[in-house]
Specification:
The chain has 497 residues and is of the alpha+beta class. It has a domain of 143 residues. It contains 16 helices and 7 strands. Helix 5 packs across helix 9 and helix 12 packs antiparallel against helix 13. The longest helix is centred in the C-terminal third of the chain and has 81 residues. The two termini are 22 Å apart.
């Protein structure tokens, strides 16, 4: 096949995908060695430059011993429940680690140093922003820079603990060894102070505030009770209510007695009136008649004669005849005759007196009954008023009782909380510094890791560039590649001079 024919065949066949084997690709990589070196050297040199300029950092370390104390025992704020179960050692260590690496501790530490001494880059950025910002924005810029410093400090601080051990290891990394040790010791000090503040149970203050609130409620409730009593003209509600009930009971009893006595008196008045109607107002006192006296005198005279004469003597017989005449006269009369005297009947007078007395008593009982009815009406009206006021009184009493109970409960809790705080403060030595941080002698740098990473990245990039060059070539690197691609045998090959 001539060259012209080969050119015509390629143009007519269009683009051809070269089929390469692994040896073909390796051969292509070898032929692309200068391209790979050209890609490798700039990247590797840039990595070396970065590694050379990488700063050396120093890590200061300290260790703390954490033991259990009363701080980790739960006690309910409200209610009378018992104290909870204390935390396990591992839980205590995790809690202390969280406190040590908390933003609150970092803020306190950073507030003790100049931001430019700790993180100069953040301070420089802050100064540039402050110079270009308006006065109203400077406070926000300062706060943002401070928070950036806090985040950087938390990033440089590392706290950990081995499992099942009460020892906390803290490390702080900084380019300056003195600053690293000083910042770590300041962090431990701020952590211990912050922990002491947390240990100072603030619940006693909340208990005091709640007690004061209940005391104010108690004063308001007592003032409301006084206003209620003054408005309704009551000195003691319960006593007055009981007194009104007793007076109503006594008035009803007296009214019943007055009604029963009045009924009895009226019955007696009716009986006396009927008896008085049957009794004459006047009666005969006596009748002046001397016949009986004369008969007695004659009989006495006869006895005197018998003492001197015999019964059949003439004087005796004469006196006997006179006696017989007097007796005959008396026997012939129906009653005494003579002067009759009449006068008021004592029985009638006594009955009249008794009747007047009973009528006066009946009138008195009627007036007493009416007065008792009026008093009972007033007492019942007062009782109804007190009954209507009872719900409001009970509401005021409940409010006062609740406030009083709240004052008592929270005063007790405040006293108990202060006692626990004082005891815990005296025993707050469960966190002890085993060894303070000292300025580290040896620093650590990322020069070797950066150089190694730069070498690997440069080599990988160069290899990828070589592979890309090898697989995208349109020429045939070996006779085998030509045979696999075109399907024609290669009779001979010559090296290009």
């Amino acid at each position: 096949m001539s060259a012209n024919e080969d050119s015509d065949w390629r143009e007519s066949a269009g683009p051809v995908h070269v089929r390469q084997s692994v040896p073909d690709i390796l051969l292509g990589l070898w032929r692309a060695k200068w391209l790979m070196l050209l890609v490798f050297l700039p990247i590797f040199l840039a990595g070396l430059l970065l590694a050379v300029n990488a700063p050396t950092t120093y890590t200061a370390s300290t260790r703390l011993l954490a033991t259990l104390d009363d701080f980790y025992v739960y006690r309910p704020i409200a209610g009378g429940g018992p104290a909870g179960v204390p935390l396990e050692q591992e839980q205590v260590i995790q809690a202390e680690l969280q406190l040590l690496s908390s933003p609150a501790v970092a803020e306190r530490v950073l507030a003790r140093f100049r931001l430019g001494d700790v993180y100069p880059s953040i301070a420089e950025a802050r100064e540039r922003d402050l110079a270009a910002a308006a006065p109203a924005e400077r406070a926000a810029i300062s706060r943002t820079a401070f928070q950036a410093g806090v985040e950087a400090l938390l990033g440089d601080l590392e706290a950990s603990a081995a499992p099942q051990t009460p020892v906390i290891a803290a490390r702080f990394t900084h380019p300056d060894p003195e600053t690293a040790a000083e910042l770590l010791n300041a962090t431990v000090g701020a952590y211990l102070k912050y922990r002491a503040e947390l240990l100072d149970d603030a619940s006693s203050d909340s208990f005091a505030a709640q007690r004061q609130a209940y005391e104010a409620q108690l004063l308001d409730a007592e003032e409301a009770i006084r206003d209620f009593l003054d408005t309704n003209n009551i000195s003691d509600f319960e006593a007055e209510k009981a007194s009104v009930d007793e007076l109503i009971s006594a008035a009803r009893s007296e009214l019943l007695n007055a009604q029963s006595r009045g009924s009895a008196v009226r019955a007696r008045v009716r009986g006396l009136r009927a008896q008085l109607d049957r009794t004459e107002a006047e009666i005969d006192f006596f009748v002046e008649d001397s016949t009986d006296e004369r008969l007695v005198e004659l009989r006495l005279e006869r006895e005197d004669l018998l003492s001197r004469y015999r019964p059949d003597s003439r004087p005796v017989q004469a006196i006997d005849r006179r006696i017989e005449q007097a007796e005959s006269y008396l026997d012939s009369q129906d009653g005494p005759r003579g002067t009759v005297r009449r006068g008021p009947n004592p029985v009638h007078q006594e009955l009249s007196t008794d009747l007047a007395t009973l009528r006066a008593e009946a009138d008195s009982l009627a007036e007493q009954r009416r007065e008792l009815q009026r008093q009972l009406a007033r007492l019942e009206a007062r009782q109804r008023q007190l009954t209507e006021l009872t719900p409001r009184w009970q509401e005021l009493q409940r409010a006062r009782d609740l406030a009083e109970q709240g004052v008592l409960d929270y005063a007790t809790r405040e006293s108990e909380s202060r006692a626990r705080t004082e005891l815990a403060a005296r025993n707050a030595d469960n966190i002890r510094v085993i060894e303070p941080a000292r300025p580290p002698i040896r620093g650590s740098s990322l020069k070797m890791p950066i150089a190694a990473a730069a070498f690997l990245f440069a080599g990988f990039t160069a290899l990828m560039a070589g592979l890309l060059w090898a697989v995208t070539r349109r020429s045939f690197a070996t006779p085998g590649s030509l045979e696999r691609t075109l399907g024609v045998p290669v009779l001979a090959s010559v090296r290009k001079s």
